Each structure stands twice: as structure tokens, then as C-alpha cells.
Amino acid sequence: QVQLVESGGGLVQPGGSLRLSCLASGSILLIHTMGWYRQAPGKERELVADITRGGTTNYADSVKGRFTISRDDAKNTVYLQMNSLKPEDAAVYYCRCGAYSTTDIPRRYLDVWGQGTLVTVSS
After folding, report:
1. Distance, CA of 119 to CA of 47 (rounded, Å)
2. Cα separation, 17 vs 83, whole angstroms
3. Residue 95 burial (10 A CB sphere; 0-12, 13-18, 19+)
């Protein structure tokens, strides 16, 4: 199957930056759209940004101009560069992708989530 592992979370001061990474591994045949979601305490999980295999990006209004999503298909990795962080950006950030696995026969579209990485924005 396909697994996702996030890294790069941590504590940052307001106005600071962090770069999240998400590595896909396993029996990967193909990865389609990759994205980042976040969930703050007491709130629903929300889309932060996603990127298609062709490179088309989509951002939540709240992060436009501050966050940048990118992917490196040779490394099966998606990144989220977060600049000008605000306290309201604090959350657990989850990676998600749609994928096909070489071991899944017949082929099924897999909806894969990572375990999440915590981002804390505080002075």
C-alpha cells in the first residue's frame, strides 16, 4: 500500500516560517493530487492547499500569499512552505494524497492520510 509521513512541524513565533514535508512510500504506482489539511482544537479539519500531478495549486483564502505548496514527484514528496505565520495557523497539519498501489489488484483509487505534524505559533 501507500503510506504518508509528515515532518517539519514545531514551535515558531508569530511572523516566523516553517517548512513541512510529506514523504509518500510503499508500493506506489502513481500519486495524483497531494494536499495539506489542518485541524485546530475544537475545529473541523480544513483544506490548506493542494496540488495536482500537473502542478495546479489551490489554497484556502486564509493562507493565500503566505503559504506555498510544491511537490517533487521524483522524491514522492510534497512540501508546504509557511511564511508570516499567525497564531490562528496553529494546528495539526495532515498530508493527504490520492494514489494507486502496485499491490492493489484490481486497481483502486486510494485516499491516504498521514498521521499529522503539530504546528504551534506562539511567542
Report:
1. 15
2. 4
3. buried
Give, as one character, the DSSP assignment of residue 9: -
Q: Strand, coil or helix: what is 89? A: helix
Cα–Cα distance for residue pair 62/67, rounded to 1 Å: 9
DSSP of 22-88, one letter per residue?
EEEEESEEEEEEEEEEEE-TTS--EEEEEE-TT--EEE-TTTTTTEEEEEETTTTEEEEEE-S--GG
User: 3-state DSSP call for residue 13?
Assistant: coil
One digit per residue, the tens of pLDDT, for the chain of length 123 reads 899 999 999 999 999 999 999 999 999 999 999 999 999 999 999 999 999 999 999 999 999 999 999 999 999 999 999 999 999 999 999 999 999 998 888 888 999 999 999 999 999
User: Kind and range of the H or E element at 14?
Assistant: none
**Do residues 116 and 92 touch, judged by C-beta distance below 8 A?**
yes
